[in-house]
Design brief:
It contains 24 helices and 39 strands. With 948 residues, the chain is an alpha+beta fold. Belongs to the ABC transporter superfamily.
């Protein structure tokens, strides 16, 4: 949620009569800042230079290759005023265009930014060697030479540019490997990248090496395909490569240059643009599902592991929790290896990753700020040294204003690693169980879809573990919430008649309703050998589960699942039956002592802070006194309206430019009433509702809720439920979980929510346990009504609750509102559907041009309508005849009939006039509808002064 502007803040806390002076002070100061900004000379656009640069790399350093580059130069960069540089790498399968936005932002911040398309991709030549030290890394070294020769780039010595290296995924590993191979690098920011490429694609979570690992065939196939064909885009290459937004990447497919066949020889369709040794290693692993020593050595050749002790450049490691490709453990290994030599290292985890994109804006902004501070200090030499903090985040819910996801950030002193600063054991139990390994791994459980991003959330509850192929062990409901930060551990026993088994261990969060969530789709594959035939004879095996950041709520249970198959991994082809049991009846959950990172305040510019500092100190004192008096006054109850849910008295809203949106609105809403607020577009309905919800202050008049004068932040607002925007929910959560998340955000006691009563009134039934993504529009609208009804507020304010619903859904919404009001509560509904208001509302308030033109029971407003429906043989001729009669007016057509307002003229005279004109009259019936009364009240010139 954004913090209010200074003027808005003053407006909320000062009474009306004293508001103008304080607001004027703030406006003057803000205007001074704006003027100061406008006095600065306008800067020209960034300069860019695109070129194919030939560099010499390879084992001997003399193999030429063309790299497609673009240099971004800030306007101030000249030979007389050189600037530091950023070398910005893209993700696997991407090109230099993948990081254009980040390059431009770095250049805006005063850096010369060099981007390039790595060899084997896009218009660059060469083959893909997977960040080989002799090829991709040496290419980057030659680019450092090129930067050092640019007069616009500041140097520390001849041939030594002042440079930071930033990249994500493929580009992140390049940053680590380049810093290990070339000491000219001044700082690096590797994001969502690997430590050991062999372990990443052949993980084994019981402690064995990649030779015993379980092949991650889904991700490996996606990577190999993106480099082995001529598709148009990339994998893992867009967002993460830039240092400012760490997000998810791109779609499959790498692109070939137009002259690829000529530049690199004939393309082998089985290898694409991969180097022959890389291709051969992949084909061997993909065929057998196991890695041989040569394949492991090849993958480790392209891994920072084993080279970290050579890195002297201060390192900011950013890793995503939603990442089944390079999980948090990869950043952990990098951090420990670099810090061991005394190099400054900072670690930041965020909620995105290869499977989760950038995460919420609050999270990507946090990472952006960390990146900028890191480079500004270690490359530019500006600002204080970043603190030795470990930061992480988790999804906290959604913003009540824009319905977007919100991530809460946390800070801890020093990096605690995957074991956390403390461990919380949780007892789990269950008998030994037999599980089947399916032949050829089919059917297989689905835990995640590589690179699916938001699609992965759709798997929750739709696909999961296969019956007969997994064992479950569960805990009792947790007595208190646990914030897990790190890698949980569990100990199991396994037996197999073949002596070997491949298993997948998972940790689920199971809510009170039985819905199970696998955090970020993460699993722990293990390959066990030398197993006995009976589980009683098996030795304990400690399994380190993938690191997560998750709050396990009180009342939730933990479920340990041991499965025999997973769609993303290669499993034994031969069928078998294994036995599994718990070796220790506890799961160990790591926790971290931390403090929240404030996110609800706007970062003020230092100049503005300096201008306001002296005033703010005095203003705070004045405001505190005035607010204290204000609250005392507003805590009084008006005796006349103490039992009235809503009383609006002489409401007026006039804007500073003289525009009057509401000039005289006065009405009441009582218990048991459903009151419809009606009016044409621009009549003042929206402004009235905004005032009622405390979103804007009236110019004059008062609003009382149960006798309390309504002001922004008034405690009595908790007795009002509202739906003033379209419903917005998290699609991967059930309806009930969405409601619970909303209620937690209110900070009110759990017992006050009255979930069961609100759900019964809304009529969702068992559908409330389904994922919201499966809801129809009408069900979403009813869920939004249920959300407004949480806590069973005594006053419900709804703006167009039937908007977009079909007739059956409208009828159901009508019943929902009537059920709510019959419980002794009150409802105020703004709607443009007059027929629905007539059938739903007991009372109506008609507003036109900012004023009430009628109010009271619906039947009284309808009254004895002067309108009649006349069916004639010739409607066109009849209209001409009636238009000539004094006082008689023909209203817009009503379903092909003439709607005639006689205005006191006898109906017999109207009929006689038609007959005299030779027009046959088939039927004359009175027309008594709210629509008639509405049109009579607002007339044809119904366009009001307009809402803002």
């Amino acid at each position: 949620m954004r913090s209010p502007s200074p003027a808005a803040w003053v407006r909320r806390v000062l009474p009306t009569r004293r508001r103008a002076l304080a607001a004027a002070v703030v406006v003057v100061l803000l205007a001074a800042g704006v003027v100061a900004g406008t006095l600065r000379p306008s800067e020209p656009d960034l300069r860019t230079e695109a070129a194919l640069v030939t560099v010499r790399s390879g084992p001997t350093g003399d193999e030429p290759v063309e790299l497609d580059t673009t240099l971004y130069l800030p306007p101030a960069a000249t030979a007389d005023a050189p600037v530091p540089a950023v070398l910005l790498g893209h993700g696997f399968g991407g090109t230099k265009e993948s990081v254009r936005a980040d390059a431009e932002e770095f250049a805006d911040r005063g850096y010369a930014v060099l981007t390039w398309t790595a060899r084997g991709f896009g218009r660059s030549g060469g083959q893909i060697h997977l960040d080989h030290p002799d090829y991709e890394v040496r290419d980057a070294q030659r680019l450092l030479d090129w930067l050092a020769a640019r007069p616009e780039v500041v140097t520390d010595a001849a041939g030594d540019p002042r440079v930071g290296v930033v990249g994500g995924s493929y580009g992140g590993a390049l940053a680590l490997l380049l810093a290990a191979q070339d000491q000219r690098v001044d700082a690096i920011v590797p994001m969502i990248t690997w430590n050991d490429l062999a372990r990443s694609f052949l993980p084994e979570n019981s402690g064995e090496g990649p030779e015993q690992g379980v092949f991650k065939k889904g991700w490996a196939g996606l990577f190999f395909g993106s480099g082995g064909n001529a598709g148009p885009a990339s994998v893992g290459g867009s967002g993460p490569a830039g240092g400012l937004a760490p997000g998810g990447g791109s779609v499959p497919g790498g692109s070939l240059p137009e002259n690829a066949a000529t530049a690199a020889g004939a393309i082998d369709p089985s290898c694409g643009r991969f180097a022959a040794d890389v291709c051969a290693a992949y084909l061997r692993i993909a065929t057998t599902g196991r890695a041989d020593p040569d394949a492991v050595a090849l993958l480790r050749r392209s891994s920072p592991a084993g080279k970290l002790d050579r890195i002297e450049a201060p390192t900011l490691l950013v890793q995503g929790a939603a990442d089944t490709l390079f999980p948090l453990s990869e950043a952990d290994a990098n951090a420990r290896g670099i810090a061991a030599t005394g190099t400054p290292v900072q670690v930041a985890w965020f909620t995105g990753g290869h499977d989760g994109g950038d995460g919420p804006k609050t999270d990507s902004d946090r990472v952006r700020n960390l990146t900028v501070r890191w480079l500004d200090h270690y490359v530019k030499g500006e600002g204080a040294a970043p603190a030795d903090d470990f930061t992480f985040s988790r999804i906290a819910g959604f913003d009540a204003l824009d319905r977007g996801l919100v991530a809460s950030g946390f800070r801890a002193t020093g990096y605690p690693g995957l074991t956390g600063t403390d461990q919380r054991p949780v007892s789990v139990s269950g008998p030994a169980q037999s599980i089947a390994n399916p032949p050829a791994g089919n059917p297989a459980a689905i835990s995640s879809v590589p690179f699916a991003g938001d699609l992965s959330s759709l798997l929750d509850g739709v696909a999961g573990d296969i019956p007969g192929q997994h064992a479950r062990f569960e805990s009792a409901p947790l007595p208190a919430a646990v914030d897990v930060v790190g890698a949980p551990t569990v100990s199991i026993r396994a037996a197999s008649p073949t002596g070997t088994a491949v298993l997948f261990v998972k940790l689920y969060d199971v809510d009170a309703g039985g819905s199970a969530t696998l955090p970020n789709g993460l699993v722990a594959p293990i390959r066990l050998e030398g197993l006995p035939a009976a589980v009683e004879d098996a030795e304990p095996v400690t399994v380190t589960l993938p690191a997560i950041v998750r709050r396990i709520e009180a009342g939730h249970r933990l479920r340990v699942v041991v499965a025999t198959s997973d769609q993303a991994y290669a499993t034994p082809v031969e069928p078998a039956v294994y036995s599994v049991a718990l070796a220790s009846e506890a799961v160990t959950l790591p926790t971290v002592a931390s403090e929240p990172i404030p996110t609800d305040a706007v970062v003020w510019r230092w100049v503005l802070v300096g201008l306001l500092a002296a005033i703010v100190v005095g203003l705070v004192v004045v405001v505190a006194v005035l607010r204290h008096r204000h609250r005392r006054r507003e805590s009084r109850v008006h005796p006349t309206y103490a039992g009235v849910p809503l009383a609006v008295r002489d409401l007026r809203k006039e804007y500073a430019d003289g525009f009057v949106a509401v000039s005289n609105v006065d009405f009441e809403v009582h218990h048991g009433q459903v009151v419809g607020l009606l009016g044409p577009n621009g009549a003042g309905k929206t402004t009235t509702l905004r005032v009622l919800m405390g979103l804007t202050q009236p110019t004059a008049g008062e609003v009382y809720v149960f006798g309390h004068r309504l002001v922004p932040g008034a405690p009595v607002l908790s007795r009002i439920g509202a739906l003033v925007e379209g419903p917005g929910f998290l699609p991967h959560l059930s309806g009930l979980d969405n409601l619970k998340a909303y209620w937690r955000a209110t900070g009110r006691p759990w017992a006050d929510a009255h979930f069961d009563e609100a759900l019964e009134i809304a009529g969702l039934g068992t559908s409330v346990h389904r994922k919201v993504r499966t809801y129809s529009h009408g069900m979403r609208q009813r869920l939004a009504i249920a959300q407004a009804m949480l806590g069973l507020p005594e006053l419900l304010v709804l703006d167009e609750p039937t908007d977009g619903l079909d007739p059956p859904q409208i009828a159901e919404m009508r019943r929902v509102l009537l059920r709510y009001a019959t419980g002794g509560r009150a409802v105020l509904v703004s709607s443009h559907l007059l027929a629905e208001v007539e059938q739903t509302c007991t009372h109506a308030v008609v507003v036109n041009k900012g004023q009430i033109v009628a109010s009271g029971p619906v039947e009284e407003i309808v009254g004895e309508s002067p309108s009649v429906l006349i069916e004639v043989t010739d409607p066109v001729a009849a209209r001409e005849v009636l238009d000539r009669l004094t006082g008689v007016s023909v209203l817009p057509d009503g379903d092909g009939q003439l709607v005639v307002d006689t205005n006191g003229t006898a109906r017999s005279e109207v009929v006689a006039e038609l007959v005299r004109a030779g027009i046959g009259v088939d039927r004359v019936v009175p027309r008594r509808r709210l629509e008639d009364a509405f049109l009579a009240l607002v007339g044809d010139n119904s366009r009001g002064s307009g809402d803002r």
